[in-house]
Amino acid sequence: MLRKAALNTGIFFLYLVSLLPFWFLYGLADVIFLVLYYVVRYRRDVVKTNLANSFPDRSEAERHRIERCYYRYLGDLMVETIKMITVSEKALRERMKPTNPELVEHYFSRGRSIIAAAGHYCNWEMAALAFGLLTTEKRVIVYKPQTNEVFNDLFNRVRARFGAILVAMKQTLRTMIAFKNDLTFSVLVSDQTPNYHEINYFTNFLNQPTAVFLGIEKLAKMMDAVVLFYRIDRVKRGYYTYTLVPLIEQPKETTGHEITEAHVQYLEKLIQETPQYWLWSHRRWKYKPEDMNK
């Protein structure tokens, strides 16, 4: 009971912080960068290892530059995510702009539902919030529940502020069957790490064998949905664009794992172009193919 009360107090504090103007929050982000990088040294070993394994051909100096840029951006990401609790629709539309929203109507007018793969790249939380403004048809965000129920509920309330429907990963199939007669636009984060018992496929991602979910591919084939990549680009501090990149238009005509490889390879290309915006402090490579035989 005391722990829950403390968490609720923490959430109220985050709400108050979210009311602060962006200019103040970015000053706070600069302080967060210094604390995370120099004082706490938050997961510095994880980041160094991930960068070394992902970019063995880049110099140590280049990897160090990416590391520092990542932590500087991580401070921005943290305060921007807090700001999403209370950000206005007007401010959100100014700061997260679609480049080709007409593509949604293009597919919907042809009776095609859409599934988009996204990554933990740039501000995916702000993009999830803006996703609710993209269309009036059903907008579904598939999420992996957090272990902390209080914060899980908070994030879901925030993501659903502008009309998106939040669906826990294990409820995806049931939800899609319920929506089978409706046009839907669903977004799934494609670079999460499956639990050990959920691993069915490894691919090569950032120079390493990587376990990936096959949910996007399975859903696309079941629904005959167009597969896109939900690309986010940072324009400048606090401002982004997002672009819907067509990957697969005829999923039922694809070979096994073709859809999975398409969205994994696109994300890899994006990370290689501007690596500091990916979530390098995530322990993405917990499992290796040899672990599956143990």
Automatic annotation (TrEMBL):
<keyword id="KW-0472">Membrane</keyword>
<dbReference type="InterPro" id="IPR004960">
    <property type="entry name" value="LipA_acyltrans"/>
</dbReference>
<protein>
    <submittedName>
        <fullName>Lysophospholipid acyltransferase family protein</fullName>
    </submittedName>
</protein>
<keyword id="KW-0808">Transferase</keyword>
<keyword id="KW-0012">Acyltransferase</keyword>
<keyword id="KW-0812">Transmembrane</keyword>
<dbReference type="GO" id="GO:0016746">
    <property type="term" value="F:acyltransferase activity"/>
</dbReference>
<keyword id="KW-1003">Cell membrane</keyword>
<keyword id="KW-1133">Transmembrane helix</keyword>
<feature type="transmembrane region" description="Helical">
    <location>
        <begin position="12"/>
        <end position="40"/>
    </location>
</feature>
<keyword id="KW-0997">Cell inner membrane</keyword>
<dbReference type="Pfam" id="PF03279">
    <property type="entry name" value="Lip_A_acyltrans"/>
</dbReference>
